[in-house]
Amino acid sequence: MKKSLDLKETRSDLVSKLEDVHGKATSEKRELTKSEAKKVDTMISKIDDLDVNIKRAEKIESELRTAAAVSGGSVSQPKADKRYSIQNAINGYMNNNLSGIEKEYHDEAKRSNTITGVGIPTMVFGETRNNPQLTSNASGMIETQVGDWAGTLQNKTVLGDLATWMYGLSGDMKLPTLSGTTAGWGTEVANATDAASVIASTTLQPKKLSSYMDISKMLLAQTNNSVEGVIRDDMTNAIASVLEAAVLGADAGAGATPQGVFNAGTQAMAGAAASYANILEMQKDLETANADFGRLAYITTPGGRQILKQVVGQPTSGTDFAGQPVWYEDLIDGYMARSTGNCNDDGSGHPNGLVLGRWDDCVIGQFGNALDVVVDPYTKAISGEVRLVILSFWDVVYRRATSFQYTHIS
Question: Is the pLDDT of residue 291 over 70?
């Protein structure tokens, strides 16, 4: 079975041929000939069939992505059409002459997403295009595909290879959580012990994430292929930093902002001066909750990292780690350790958030297969810039509160 993008490329080719036939008749100010009309009818019929097949393929791919994300696996993603240009899409929309493959993708985005500006497919953010003009060897002339947009986004955050990512969602997504399982011994003829399993659920629901970036009109006017990468990377960074700040924040999640781990998790202890004893307490609490497996890591602020590098870990003389700091070679007592300015800093006497988590229980969902980019040429017109307001939809859920043990240190 063909992938949805392959079907879309075939559809795009048919639409281009349709435009050629129609354009020729229009320029000659005449009706279609019988031969042309027959050809047009055939192409329209094929386009209608493709629309049905595209919808089916997208549904199958969405289900496969969901299944793979829940199980911790992955599924290959369709590659972006090499002809597509974010730069052309922005320029075309701004000048009211969107055309070609960019218009085709924009129209497709409007069919399956809420789009108020120009629809830019997320798959193009997972593509790397080398610029042959900037390289001195043959390898630079090869266009390389590197996967889906979520993969690109992950590379910009400390949560990238830790959290569970679900993307291209089309509606609310319930995630079951099994808890309370017990068992017991019995005689050969005794009734089986009630396992007392409780199946709860958490739900991913789309929340709008708005970010913006300003780019110069001079940059948009460039024809150098490397401009594509600059625009794409800046748009990705604009989204990634806001998203991660929400995940590593303390919002209750009752409003427009997703719930943060410092609200959803379990407080291991009240804020305190950092100590090796506190680090061990967090590990004990995670193990007691039977969550000490999977993708485990400590995350804190840059200030927290600085503090932990000054706290002595294993003090026992004669051991391999005697006198070493708690934070050593990006490990905290053997657990992966990362720091980011996006981590919660509550401004209290012990401001630096510190969380030890089983991060595969943090599920980040992205909704839709396109970004809604509102092109505003007026707000920054005096400085010769165009403002892009980037709208995307996300949510975050934590499958078990006890999988995240947090505190604040100073």
Answer: yes
